[in-house]
Amino acid sequence: xxxxxxxxxxxxxxxxxxxxxxxxxxxxxxxxxxxxxxxxxxxxxxxxxxxxxxxxxxxxxxxxxxxxxxxxxxxxxxxxxxxxxxxxxxxxxxxxxxxxxxxxxxxxxxxxxxxxxxxxxxxxxxxxxxxxxxxxxxxxxxxxxxxxxxxxxxxxxxxxxxxxxxxxxxxxxxxxxxxxxxxxxxxxxxxxxxxxxxxxxxxxxxxxxxxxxxxxxxxxxxxxxxxxxxxxxxxxxxxxxxxxxxxxxxxxxxxxxxxxxxxxxxxxxxxxxxxxxxxxxxxxxxxxxxxxxxxxxxxxxxxxxxxxxxxxxxxxxxxxxxxxxxxxx
Amino acid sequence: xxxxxxxxxxxxxxxxxxxxxxxxxxxxxxxxxxxxxxxxxxxxxxxxxxxxxxxxxxxxxxxxxxxxxxxxxxxxxxxxxxxxxxxxxxxxxxxxxxxxxxxxxxxxxxxxxxxxxxxxxxxxxxxxxxxxxxxxxxxxxxxxxxxxxxxxxxxxxxxxxxxxxxxxxxxxxxxxxxxxxxxxxxxxxxxxxxxxxxxxxxxxxxxxxxxxxxxxxxxxxxxxxxxxxxxxxxxxxxxxxxxxxxxxxxxxxxxxxxxxxxxxxxxxxxxxxxxxxxxxxxxxxxxxxxxxxxxxxxxxxxxxxxxxxxxxxxxxxxxxxxxxxxxxx
Lengths: 329, 329
Hints:
The structure is a homodimer.
Chain A: H1 11-22, E1 27-29, E2 36-38, E3 47-54, E4 65-66, E5 71-77, H2 83-93, E6 99-104, H3 107-119, E7 124-129, H4 149-162, H5 167-179, E8 181-187, E9 207-210, E10 221-224, H6 228-243, E11 249-257, H7 263-279, E12 282-290, E13 300-307, H8 310-317, E14 320-322, E15 326-327
Helix pairs in contact in A: 2-3, 4-5, 4-8, 6-7
Organism (chains A, B): Tepidamorphus gemmatus
Catalytic activity (chains A, B): dihydroxyacetone + phosphoenolpyruvate = dihydroxyacetone phosphate + pyruvate
GO cellular component, one term (chains A, B): cytosol
């Protein structure tokens, strides 16, 4: 295992220390490294809290700040955070208008966030994201997995909460954005969890995984490496096919790198995917390309499409000031 | 070779098409893919033009926009752009106040930018960056290599130009920032140039390259993989030792990923490096952590330290609106 670490026990702690020191204008580290919270809380605002296993950075800690999350709970690598982390985070950021948990659909995360919600003294609502069209169930999830589309939910609902939306409205908006969002990923290489020390899976030099999950879980099938255009074509077909007749109008296209793919290739995939989507009569009017929901150093990428409407587009465009997403301020 | 491409001949073109489509609010693609220029040019402003081999994205095309570059010329992967690209870019963005070329110190780039400057009809000045303390000369350079510190020069001079500084002032400021900037890099794995098809170099499973260049060129020596703290210690010692007695006051710390290292590890390196630097009495008051000056999918990172003064800090903080760096607007 080749990693820039001092020991597998201290990876998460040292990484969080570095993150919070580098972005001390935006975030504060919670006690015992339980959570990262927004430095400037906004009285009366619905508080957005997310979290999950680490190794997907910048998700979620990189999305804490004005216009997005109020707190994020980092678990160990690819391991759910504990209910007491979520409870501590919620109590630290609750401003009297309730707390909305944004949870990716994995059994551990869903169960722990449910327990935290039951233990909470304040009002809590939850949105579970499940945007991955690759498989209907997986090793870690009942039902579809929540992947890069979670970023879109957090950005859009974060803007609505910042603008004063109440808890029920934020929850309904989050569910609506999730319902209008579809993703699919592919991997060219595996990733190595520090505590495991060996690659999660293996792929031959001429193979790729079509429909991979963000922990390296199996997707639809293992195939021979294909040209970018054919890969994009299969991903776009899966995503748009899943939308069915609803797919029209304007859309957001997110090309998300898994951590080990060069930026050049991500923009090349964007070029191929965008042309394929626009050929189906959907106009890409919002774009994001980069490493946002990663799987450590896995090579590969995912495509995410969100069908926009006026409200979703307006909240996407609204100012955001986090470590990983920043515009308008 | 495992890459998301359609063919080695079209990688650069398709990637640039995707980049310019994704950021069409900020940039315009020049004729024949010769350059990427800022969409909204500012009359009377000194024009900043940079460029170099591709494969280092987001450098330089990702830094085109308000407050940074006016144009960037992308060569083929790890290959200098041609003088006619630089000339075309300069002519497209010259607003009557002259053009400043920012050039990384590699023989091919320096020679081609010199030829372009000689062919220019307008006034041209040049700043050559050479911030890499690892080696005094390399396979591609006479004298020190220009690496991630180039980003700092482009940001600071870009802000000065935006604020109305004239050509001589921009050039002097660029040279001053370069003189106050030092970098060093390390690699855990190689990278693969698409046209070559095989890794540029090879490292055993327990080896790393100390002082690596951004094309995978050799550094100081090949050593056994060390803990992050020891790696950071050697890099910080090399950088601060090179500054000598001048190293005091406030500094900017950039931890730059080479493309294949997870964000978690970059923040862990930041944590280790920051503590080591502050122990020497230098205060880190500006920070940047991420993949900014990459070497395709190489695993590893570089540290860059810029000694700040009031002018440099002010220009660093000034608003910037590019694909890869954005704040204050």
